[in-house]
Amino acid sequence: MPPRAARSEITVNDPSPRRTYLDVDDRRRQLLDAAVEVMVHDGVAALSLRSVAQRAGVAHRVVSYAFGSKADLVTALLERESGLLTRRLWAEPLAPLPLGDAVAAALHTFVAELRRERVRHERLAELTAMARSSEALAGAARAETEAVRGEIERLVEAWIASRGGVLTAPTATLVAVVHAAAEGLAAWWLATGDDDHVDDVIRVFAAGLAAFERA
Description:
By secondary structure, this protein is mostly helical. Helices cover 69% and strands 5% of the residues. It contains nine helices and four strands. It has helices at 24-42, 49-56, 60-67, 70-89, 99-116, 118-132, 138-163, 171-192, 198-209, and strands at residues 9-11, 21-23, 166-167, 213-214. The strands form two sheets. Strands 1-2 form a two-stranded antiparallel ribbon. It has a two-stranded antiparallel sheet with strand order 3-4. The protein is elongated and about 65 Å long. The N and C termini lie far apart (65 Å).
């Protein structure tokens, strides 16, 4: 029977006489945590309603009740994980420095976050790539991209206000350049783990941004 309200209850598949009850929101959070564990430990290909149920220690029907389908589960997982990671990766405001220096500092923080949970970022990148190639999940992938772009735009606009400077190109162009650089940097570093050259890569990119700021 479909859920009737946010406070509906789902039962853990617990053989003990006393069962544990969680409301739908709490259950979904628990199951998404389990989905992350499946994704990180077993890979994106292992993600399914059944594998999540096994990881969470509940019956398969509990996951079906909470999400309905694998596509709905993946959409919810992508939305939550990309949102959490986006807020973490772009949490620090751009320093009130020349544009190149400010973005370089942000990208160094960005790479430090990638290092902190490399496997989780790798799996999320894989999940995002899968979503982009799926008609059922394309909307979630687009929402993720727009969320990242929105965070970068917020930081760029705050930097402009703090510097009182004038850009030589539209703000949207700068946002797109920083977004592309971050995506490319993440893909390159996750593929190579090349810490010997990451500082040089960031420095060369940042030097090119100097042209965006009018003296």
